[in-house]
Amino acid sequence: MIDVQNDSDKADLIRATSTGLVCDAGQFVIDPWKSTHTALITHAHADHARPVAQVYYASESSVPLLKQRLGEDKDIRGVPFGHVVSFGQTNVSFHPAGHILGSSQIRVAHDVDVWVFTGDFKRDHDPSCEAFELVPCNTFITEATFALPVYRWQPGSVVAEEIWQWWQSMQSAQRPAVLFAYSLGKAQRVLSELTAYTDKPVYLHGAVEKLTGIYREAGINMLPTIPIDLKDKSVDYKGQLIIAPPGASGSAWMKRFPKASTGFCSGWMRIRGNRRRRGYERGFVLSDHADWPGLIDTIEQTGATRILTTHGQSSTLVRLLRERGFDAQELETRYSADDSLTEETESDSTLNSSLDSGQATS
Ligand SMILES: [Zn+2]
């Protein structure tokens, strides 16, 4: 990735550098990927929350997730949504991004200059996290993971009904239904959406179980869950729904579920070939990122005249925004599309090894 440190960017309130999104006036870095003192963290996904800072600030509901990811010993300070904290010459506040539990947009104000970084965000209803809040600004730094017109989402409740129908058909067929879903956010969203259709328990891979426990402690209503104990040979998984991180797909772990039907939950399932290539029987199009209309509507609603996009592959979006009179530009960052097929697997297997160390049961 290329650092963006042009002369023209020197006056910018927030700059993309090799350390992260740096705010000189506030003496902090947003979602840093290199060593720094003060970090402001948008959310607990691995590409945004790395153990590289001395002090971390994040939304209150992010704190337990960040402690799980970064370590209990880390100095992580929770800030209530909407509460203004002064850093150097800036005033900073966190606002819900609707992506996962605790996920935040970060608003940075310096005199009359107001910047908002979305982190990852979505506009669709999600019963497992705080709803997105529109925050007016001059400069809007937006994620652009699904920045193509083909990406349009159905409501999560509709996708959950598809999952429920698949689960029911596997009950009839007496086969396990193994659903691969990102272990932080997506898995809990599915568990929450499914409460509209059933109260049956769901079996969870170890990496999903601990994070689900944090959601339950935060008061999120979800189906009852049972951690999978591979040593317990008495459990019959026929007709049961099992949720596992994508990294478990094709692993030895799957041997415990003979004749399983497999499904994958991701925005990338919108592209039919992705499901086939990965060998999943079912693809469920469920994303925790804004879709194409969601991105454009949000950009227009903020009132910002300058738009910076992250996550790359946003040239189509940038071109459209320029046609509509925006000062739009792609920003080079190291944030990965955590809904993606590759990064998702990578970050989940990292999490797996940290959660499952010394624990052979999952
Ligand atoms: Zn994310």
Question: Would you kindly provide a written description of the structure presented here, covering whatever features stand out?
Answer:
The protein has 362 residues and is α/β, with parallel strands linked by helices. The protein folds into two domains: 7-149 and 289-331, Metallo-beta-lactamase, Chain A (4-Layer Sandwich), CATH 3.60.15; 156-284, Rossmann fold. 25% of the residues lie in helices and 23% in strands. The protein contains eight helices and 19 strands. It has a seven-stranded mixed β-sheet, with helices on one face. Strands 1-2-3-4-5-6 form a six-stranded mixed β-sheet, covered by helices on one side. It is globular and about 65 Å long. The model is unreliable at 1-10 and 340-362 (pLDDT under 50). Bound molecules: zinc ion (ZN). Zinc ion (ZN) binds next to loops.
Using brief descriptors, characterize the structure shown.
Metallo-beta-lactamase, Chain A, globular, binds zinc ion, 25% helix, Rossmann fold, seven-stranded mixed β-sheet, six-stranded mixed β-sheet, 362 residues, disordered C terminus, disordered N terminus
